[in-house]
C-alpha cells in the first residue's frame, strides 16, 4: 500500500467510525448526523437561505439540503420564512429546534470527550495542516473552512 493510499483509507476509517459513534449518540435525540449538522449550522448562522446552508454542509454527498430541510420542517425543528421575494426563503430554528440542537451539542461533546484522549500526545497541528491542505481542494473542505472562519481559496 502506498502512503497516499494508506492516507486515504485511514481518513475514510476515521470518518466512518466517528460518524458511527455520533449516529449512536444521536439515536436518542431522534436525528441523523446529517440532520444534526443542519441544526448546528442554523444555530450558528441563521437566518440562512437554502443555497447558503448548502455551502456550509459537509454531510455526505448525495444528501440534498432541500430534502434534509424538508424533513426538519415537517418535524417542527426548522422554520421557513418567505421574504418579500418568494425566492428568498430564510431558514431558522423553531423553539423545538433550539431545544433539539442543545441535545445535539451534548452528543457532540460526549463524542469529543471520547476522542480527545486518542489525540493527546500526537502532532495534531501538523495533522490538521495536512488535512486542511487536502480538504481545501474540495467543496466539503471549503465548507469546513467557511464554518471555521478561515480564508477560502478561489
Could you name the CATH homologous superfamily?
A: Winged helix-like DNA-binding domain superfamily/Winged helix DNA-binding domain
CATH architecture: Orthogonal Bundle
User: Secondary-structure element sequence?
Assistant: HHEHHEEHHH
Ends distance: 33 Å
DSSP strand content? 5-15%
SS-derived structural category: mainly alpha
> Helical segment tally?
7
Report the mean per-residue pLDDT as an integer. Answer: 92
CATH topology: Arc Repressor Mutant, subunit A
Structural domain count: 1
Q: What is the CATH domain class?
A: Mainly Alpha
For the sheet with most strands, the description reads: 3 strands, antiparallel
How helical, in percent, are the residues? 55-70%
Principal-axes geometry comes out as globular
Q: How many beta-strand runs?
A: 3
Note poorly predicted spans: none
If strands are numbered along the chain, what order do they take across the biggest sheet? 1-3-2
Radius of gyration, whole Å: 17 Å
Protein name: DNA-binding MarR family transcriptional regulator
InterPro entries: HTH_MarR-typ (IPR000835), MarR/SlyA-like (IPR039422), WH-like_DNA-bd_sf (IPR036388), WH_DNA-bd_sf (IPR036390)
GO molecular function: DNA binding; DNA-binding transcription factor activity
Keywords: DNA-binding
What do you see in this structure?
- By secondary structure, the chain is mostly helical.
- It has a single domain (3-148), classed as Winged helix-like DNA-binding domain superfamily/Winged helix DNA-binding domain (Arc Repressor Mutant, subunit A), CATH 1.10.10.10.
- It has helices at residues 3-27, 33-45, 50-56, 65-74, 95-119, 124-135, 139-148, and strands spanning 48-49, 78-82, 89-93.
- The chain has a three-stranded antiparallel β-sheet.
- A hairpin with a 6-residue loop joins strand 2 and strand 3 (89-93).
- Helix 1 crosses helix 5 (95-119) and helix 2 packs across helix 5.
- The relative contact order is 0.12.
- The model has no long low-confidence stretch (mean pLDDT 92).
- Residues 24-120 form the HTH marR-type domain.
- This is DNA-binding MarR family transcriptional regulator.
- Keywords: DNA-binding.
- GO terms for molecular function: DNA binding; DNA-binding transcription factor activity.
Amino acid at each position: 500500500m502506498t502512503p497516499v493510499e494508506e492516507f486515504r483509507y485511514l481518513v475514510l476509517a476515521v470518518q466512518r467510525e466517528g460518524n458511527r459513534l455520533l449516529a449512536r449518540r444521536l439515536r436518542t435525540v431522534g436525528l441523523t448526523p446529517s440532520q444534526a449538522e443542519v441544526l448546528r449550522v442554523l444555530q450558528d448562522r441563521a437566518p440562512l437561505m437554502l443555497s447558503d446552508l448548502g455551502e456550509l454542509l459537509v454531510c455526505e454527498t448525495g444528501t440534498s439540503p432541500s430534502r434534509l430541510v424538508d424533513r426538519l420542517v415537517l418535524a417542527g425543528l426548522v422554520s421557513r420564512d418567505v421574504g418579500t421575494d418568494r425566492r428568498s426563503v430564510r431558514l431558522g430554528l423553531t423553539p423545538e429546534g433550539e431545544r433539539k440542537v442543545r441535545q445535539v451539542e451534548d452528543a457532540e461533546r460526549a463524542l469529543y470527550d471520547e476522542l480527545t484522549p486518542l489525540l493527546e500526545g500526537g502532532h495534531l497541528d501538523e495533522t490538521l495542516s495536512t488535512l486542511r491542505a487536502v480538504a481545501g481542494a474540495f467543496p466539503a473542505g471549503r465548507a469546513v473552512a467557511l464554518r471555521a472562519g478561515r480564508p477560502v481559496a478561489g
